[in-house]
Amino acid sequence: MNTLLDISDVVVRFGVRGGVFRSAGTIDAVSGVSLKIEEGQTYGIVGESGSGKTTLARAVAGLHHASEGSILYLGKELRNLPETQFRKLRREIVMMFQDPIGSLSPRLSIKSLITEPFRIQGMTDRDLDAEARRLLQMVGLPPEFAARYPYQISGGQARRVGVARALALDPKLLIADEPTAGLDVSIQGEMLNLLARLQDELGLAIMIITHNLNVVRHITDRVGIMYLGKLVEEGDTDTVFASPQHPYTLALLAANPEPDPDAQLMRIELQGEPPSILRRPKGCEFHTRCPFAQARCAAEVPDWQVKGAAAHRCHFPSAWEENRMEKL
Amino acid sequence: MAVLDIQKLSVSYATPRGELKALRDVSITVPDRKIVGIVGESGCGKSTLISAIIRLMAPNAHVGSGQVAFKGEDLLTKGEAQIRALRGTQISMVFQDPMQTHNPVLTVGRQMIDIQYRDALSKAEKRKRAVDMLALVGIPDPEARLNQYPFEFSGGMRQRIAIAMALMARPALLIADEPTTALDATLEVQIIKRLRELQDEIGCSILFISHHLGVIAELCDEVVVMYAGEVVEAGSVRDVFHSPAHPYTRALLECDPGHIKEKTRNLPTIPGNIPDLVNLPSGCIFAARCPRRFDACTARPAMAEASAGHGTACHLIGMEMTA
Ligand SMILES: Nc1ncnc2c1ncn2[C@@H]1O[C@H](COP(=O)(O)OP(=O)(O)OP(=O)(O)O)[C@@H](O)[C@H]1O
Ligand SMILES: Nc1ncnc2c1ncn2[C@@H]1O[C@H](COP(=O)(O)OP(=O)(O)OP(=O)(O)O)[C@@H](O)[C@H]1O
Ligand code: SF4
Ligand SMILES: [Mg+2]
Ligand SMILES: [Mg+2]
């Protein structure tokens, strides 16, 4: 298999101004992330709200400037690529945005919105009415939706319009930021099955950001867990779900609410508040909230450790097992 | 007494193809100090229902009939000014799209101070309340963050700020339209816990819309299941999740990937499409997709009791009882 996307040590920095931030100057919303996505693969990114997932995705899609590191797409460096050159690549690399309605221009009809990629790419030979019908059908919306405007459709329908628009040009890499948030489980299933089919037929690679752990477990090949702008665990999805090593991963997997009011959940309470990105904790950045932290965690930054088909950054990855034994 | 009592509400949208009947005879009750969840197919009318309650409807929307009683008074007969006075004080709202709550050109702090305009507090006190509220929903550096604009926050942060703002009014009724879609599982659980605590402290009721069945199971006391503009089942969370009576509810629960232990790339779905809301089929609204459809289903089923306090609109109910 070919590596489609090779991200290494990417940093995305934002300037911040005013108030207390005046002294800070900048924050690293993404702070040194490396990962690889193979052709035809699905890579899941999960993690704390505000941990830099959207920012990373936008950097790959050329919508944020990466201050450091490299983003290779089929061997070609995307970082610092001028917008005029990036535009051609937008046939192959497409992004689906997190806000379904907010990301659709309210003045354009649904037909204009889903066929806009053809116009942007100057593909004037296309029959846009036919394309609109094809794309709407693909995402399970009736043809009459072509004439509607974004405020005349429901949240989940807007999400599906976003999927149609993203798939218009048969991309090679789809970056999907929460593509199924706001969909009921049946339509969520339809959308994910559609993506799986396109993947089989066209070799589409997908970078999917989602908080829905059930989705991640079923459809991704690999997964990366983000915390405070960095990956804390990364690897084969089945391996990570079967034996999560990093305590944050563990807390995340244990938190997943079960569709049963009487479910007995073994939850792991995170301590304290989410840390400030302005004053990153020393040592392991998770130590301020980690239920298993020890003195070493506050002093030393843990290195990547490989375990089976996954890797993690934690000094005491098996602490939770001992902890569980104690509880039993 | 119920805080919110919706009876036989019908709402339609004028479209070039004719009236789109988005809600038909919908009845939902939110008891005092209870959390009621609404689940249902995308496009089944959940947001339409909310917009009708708080009267922020699309220009082409029209309330056909029904009542929306809030603390015993019908909101549908109230004037615009009276409704406006209720919104943001007695009834707070978290919208599906957080950008609908936030003004993009004002800092978050400014917006959080502005919504306290009714309170006789100094600016510093209002600012302090805003900081406390942000901290409560887990926003780091709340003090500094107040100076930032909405686009400088992540999707989940914007959602949490919307929740914080809705709670600042200490409303009698909080209506939340999918407020946790952008939250990771640990935060979601934490926010649910905070919501429950605040609900207890403020003594409010919550109407909570979500597609996440796990969240509904964890947060809500009661749940209402909607399909294509109608209520098809309602009852306690335990009754509905443990013994779903309507075939749509059963299908929905079966589709939840949370229930599927074996890894699969082919996720279950409910075959077929939702009916055209302009040209409605006669009979049961779910019939075209129902695996248990039979002769009686060509007539529209009325709401009937599956067990005490657990109702469903399906002809199977009568059948099973006589059988
Ligand atoms: N344009 C911007 N300017 C300044 N700060 C920003 C900007 N965009 C994001 N940030 C900050 O960067 C951090 C990461 O945000 P990001 O949107 O990438 O998070 P996320 O992981 O996608 O979270 P969520 O799951 O809540 O969507 C946050 O602290 C956010 O406030
Ligand atoms: N202004 C409008 N004009 C015409 N049709 C509309 C309008 N607003 C909504 N609709 C339609 O009314 C139906 C109900 O929409 P609503 O937004 O209430 O659904 P919902 O249950 O909130 O769905 P979701 O879970 O996807 O947000 C949908 O079929 C939608 O397309
Ligand atoms: S009334 Fe008939 S068609 Fe409708 S849900 Fe019940 S069994 Fe199915
Ligand atoms: Mg995001
Ligand atoms: Mg909605």
Q: Point out poorly predicted stretches of chain B.
A: none
Quick one: biggest sheet of chain B?
Answer: 8 strands, mixed
Helix content of chain A: 25-40%
Largest interface: A-B, 76 and 77 residues
Distance between the termini of chain A: 45 Å
Strand share of the residues of chain B?
15-25%
Structural domains of chain A: how many: 1
- Counting helices, strands and paired strands, the structural category of chain A is alpha/beta
* Secondary structure category of chain B: alpha/beta
Strand fraction of chain A: 15-25%
The overall pLDDT of chain B, averaged over residues, is 92
Biggest sheet layout of chain A: 8 strands, mixed
Query: Can you list the strand order of the major beta sheet of chain A?
Result: 6-7-8-3-9-10-12-11
Molecular shape of chain A: globular
Please identify the top-level CATH class of the largest domain in chain B: Alpha Beta
Assign the CATH topology of the largest domain in chain B: Rossmann fold
